[in-house]
Fold DNA-binding transcriptional regulator, AcrR family.
Amino acid sequence: MTVSLSAELWPDVQPEAARRLMLAGVESFARRGYHATTTRDIAGGAGMSPAALYVHFPSKAALLFAISKSGHEQTLALVENVVARKAGPAETIRELTQDFVAWHARRHTVARVVQYELQALPEKELAVVAELRRRIEQTVRDVIGQGIADGVFTVPDPWTAARAVLSLGVDVARWYTDRTRQSPAALGRDYGELVLRMLGAG
Amino acid sequence: MTVSLSAELWPDVQPEAARRLMLAGVESFARRGYHATTTRDIAGGAGMSPAALYVHFPSKAALLFAISKSGHEQTLALVENVVARKAGPAETIRELTQDFVAWHARRHTVARVVQYELQALPEKELAVVAELRRRIEQTVRDVIGQGIADGVFTVPDPWTAARAVLSLGVDVARWYTDRTRQSPAALGRDYGELVLRMLGAG
């Protein structure tokens, strides 16, 4: 657990102590689950006292929310950045899949918390994250819808196809480990090809 | 939580009290995670005393293993049953995807425990489950490999393709809920078509 890793994961979070707590939170939640983790565990993991944790996060739920919100914002930004390049539906879906898959491989521990601990979020915080998820799905759906309209993709239902594309990426967080031979970038490229075929543009 | 549901989930487990404990275990593990669940929670959920739980399962880990092993045996059987029909690689992959996806939708709560609590299994028990997982992956890979050899499928790497096929099915357990409009069978059919396209036989 290094300062540079937490700065890489959360470049927008200040101060460094808050990032250190988020990293300790990710490690504890991923290992034992949210409910079995105490604020004492997290503070200890970050080399801090429980009181020091509360300076930065009012509760364990607030820490989870910070991790979850940041992860969803990062993946939404990644998807929106690809779309902003306006490369046409096929190239857009290929790059979007590559980047989304590679993120879930490279950040697999963070991604597990982001994708599998949603039900632990309090209602208001869940609503914020759900809106980010809705925007991610809508963006992918719109690209696929445009590809269908352009005659580039041949799938019958853009919603089901968008869900399948995102599902392939999310599930990488479940099975990818530091021992996986294929690099995140190489896996992203392979999945980009598979997704283009799936949509009828292979 | 009814007797008939637990009998439907685990027809081979006897007596009924053991099935009732497995169902209470699934519900607790899915809601709060394995580590935050006590044997007292599980026994209470089954309307039994903690002592009564130990008559059937020597530990919380033994109960998790029973749930995990049964889930993996059921999905392996499902995959092997489709292959045994010898319908050719394309039809086999279509039916296999349908059944695997529909199982993860219909049994989404059980499937979440089966797919996401592997790391909580003790070493020996994990080895048993890992072998079942290896057989599932190998079976799917072999069908895809046969399809490539027959010129029916055009994917370059049967391992990556097999992983993607299974990944699409497993991830259904994460997002499918009782409120999802599409039925497990309809979702299975849609995914069967998407997978055939992905393999180059759409």
Observations:
- The interface with chain A takes residues 31-36, 115-116, 119, 155, 157, 160-161, 163-164, 167-168, 170-172, 174-175, 182, 187, 190-191, 194-195, 197-200, 202 of chain B (CB under 8 Å).
